[in-house]
Amino acid sequence: MKKITFLFYFLATFYSSAQGYSTGTISLNNTAGVAMTAKIDVNTLVTLTLTGPSNRWFALGFGASSMTAGTDVVVCHANTVALPSFDRYLTGFSAPVSDPSQHWTITSNTVSGTVRTIIATRALSTGDTNDYTFSSNPNPISLIWAYGSTANSYTLSYHGGRGVTSANFTLGNNDFVLSEFMMYPNPAKAYVTIDLSDLTSNATVLIYDYLGRLVKKESLNTTSSRIETSNLQKGTYIVKVDSDNGLASKILILD
C-alpha cells in the first residue's frame, strides 16, 4: 500500500512540477578555504548542487533553523567519490546519523583545488519519515549548514563553522519544449527510442526509478537513439534528457 501511495504522489508531482523551480546558487559561507554554496532545483526530481571544502567534512540540512532532532541532512563524510552515508538525519546536538534508506543518488562528486562539488538527485517525497519533503510549489526553505574544524579530517566532530540561510525558489527557465523530445514505444519492454528534433551537443539520457534513484545513464550521439531497458524491472520511471539546450522529462512505463 505504501508503494502504491508513493507512486501516486510521484506521478502527481511529475505533472504538477513540469515547469520547475530553482533557488539559484546560494552563498552559505564565503570564508576562504571553507566556502560553501548550494543550489536546489525542483522539477520531476530534486537536484542538489552542493559545494564545500575539499579537505574536511561539510553538511547541509533542510527545513530547519537549528539542530532539531529529525532534521534531514546530507553530509560529505569522506574523501572518496562514493559517499555511502550521504543521506543522514539529526537526533539533536550530536553527529548526524546515517539514514538506513539512502535516497539521494550522487551523480557527480568532483574536486577542483580546494573546492568539492557534489551533484545529487532524489524524489521530492521518498515516503521516509527521516527525509524532508520538497514541495512542488515554490515555497521558501530554511537551510542549516556546517563544516569541520580540522583540515584533512572527515571525522564528524565539532564544527568549525555553521549557520542558517533562508532560500526562495523562483520559476525555472531551462526546460526546452517537450515536443523536441519523443520517446517510444511507451509502455516499453526491451528498449525505448529517444528522438530529438535536432542533435544537440552533450546530450545525455538519465533514467530514474520511482524513488529518484538513477538506474541508467547514456550519451545520445544521434537524433534517434535506442536505449536498452531489458535489464530494468517492470514499473514506472522518469526519463530525463539533459543537454546544452536545457532539459526535459517524460514518464516511461516498462511492462
Question: Which short descriptors sum up this protein?
Answer:
255 residues, mainly beta, Immunoglobulin-like, 2 domains, seven-stranded antiparallel beta sheet, six-stranded antiparallel beta sheet, 20 strands, elongated, signal, Putative secreted protein (Por secretion system target), DOH_DOMON
- 3D shape: elongated
Assign a percent range to the helix content.
under 10%
Biggest sheet overview: 7 strands, antiparallel
Tell me the fraction of residues in β-strands, as a range.
over 45%
CATH topology of the largest domain: Immunoglobulin-like
How many separate structural domains? 2
- How many extended strands? 20
Distance between the termini: 20 Å
Overall pLDDT: 85
Task: Give a quick rundown of the structure.
The protein has 255 residues and is mainly β.
Overall description:
By secondary structure, this protein is mainly β. It folds into 2 domains: 21-171, Immunoglobulin-like (Sandwich); 182-254, Immunoglobulins (Immunoglobulin-like, Sandwich), CATH 2.60.40. Helices cover 6% and strands 45% of the residues. It has 1 helix and 20 strands. The strands form 4 sheets. Strands 1, 2, 3, 4, 9, 10 and 13 form a 7-stranded antiparallel beta sheet that branches. It has a 6-stranded antiparallel beta sheet with strand order 8-7-6-5-11-12, with no helix packed on it. A hairpin with a 2-residue loop joins strand 9 and strand 10 (115-122). The protein starts with a helix and ends with a strand. This is Putative secreted protein (Por secretion system target). Residues 1-18 form the signal peptide. It holds the Pfam family Por_Secre_tail.
